[in-house]
Design a protein that fits this description.
262 residues, Immunoglobulin-like, elongated, 2 helices, Jelly Rolls, mainly beta, 7% helix, 2 domains, 4-stranded antiparallel β-sheet
Length: 262
């Protein structure tokens, strides 16, 4: 004869199963906000554009697009947002700089939601003369800068007079450990006295820590040019001439800071 066995489930275990299966009643979803920048790099005079989205903001929440201002990085409203999600354009940025934006929601004077901050870089032109002054090297303060020289049949206006190293030895005219500039465009020619040396050749190069060098050279009586794309890291501007004459140079960089530094 076989006897039936009765298996009892402890009351505590059964209660635990029931508890895991049931969600807390009336739990409110946490408010969230996100912001995406259409173009993180723009030219000065351009209005930054964004798309944004918010979810689960309490009724009565007012949403704003905010930007940081001043050295204390104070958040201020720049646009009121009338929908929970959409697109928005901020006021134009008229000065070089790195600007941070976010979406921020308030209700009854209290913050209820904020997105993470996103940077927009406003680029503009910075002269070679300005970069030279920031670097403060000897050749930038020799008193021979800002002048004109006759090159062939052209009057060439230059900002800086550089070096007298004899090729293949180069002088390091500018040295930046890092830079806010994305391009450097140069025009150059052999200095006035060197123009009478028909065999003279001027050499210019930009050397970077994580990119191949960009170089150019030009014979006496002609104007040379060079354009380098900068990667934001360290870069040198080097010059040399075949017979040791100086080089007259002008140029402009596209940067998001007026110093050219990051």
């Amino acid at each position: 004869m076989h006897l039936a066995r009765l298996v009892l489930v402890p009351a505590v275990a059964a209660a635990a199963v029931v508890t895991l299966a049931v969600s807390p009643a009336g739990a409110a979803a946490k408010p969230t906000a996100s912001l995406a920048v259409s173009h993180a790099t723009i030219a000065t005079g351009t209005a930054p554009a964004f798309s944004y989205s918010t979810k689960h903001a309490p009724k009565g929440t007012t949403l704003y697009l905010q930007r940081q201002f001043g050295s204390k990085h104070v958040w201020k409203n720049v646009r009121k947002l009338t929908h929970a999600s959409g697109k928005v354009t901020a006021p134009k940025l008229t000065s070089l700089g790195r600007y941070y934006y976010r979406v921020h929601g308030v209700r009854k004077g209290k913050a209820v939601v904020s997105s993470s901050a996103h940077a927009v870089y406003a680029y503009g032109n910075v002269s070679l003369g300005r970069l030279c002054a920031v670097y403060n090297g000897y050749t930038c303060n020799s008193g021979d800068d800002d002048g004109t020289v006759e090159v062939g049949s052209t009057i060439f206006n230059y900002q800086v007079l550089f070096g007298d190293n004899t090729y293949p030895s180069y002088a390091h005219e500018l040295r930046f450990a890092s830079t806010s500039c994305r391009t450097l465009s140069l025009r150059y020619a052999t200095d006035g006295n060197g123009q009478r040396d028909s065999t003279e050749v001027s050499y210019v190069r930009v050397v970077q820590a994580s990119a191949d060098p960009v170089s150019s050279h030009v014979a006496s009586g002609h104007i040379g040019s060079l354009k380098a794309n900068l990667d934001g890291g360290a870069f040198y501007l080097d010059t040399s001439t075949k017979d040791g004459w100086s080089i007259d140079m002008t140029g402009v960089a596209s940067c998001w800071s007026s110093s050219g530094k990051r």
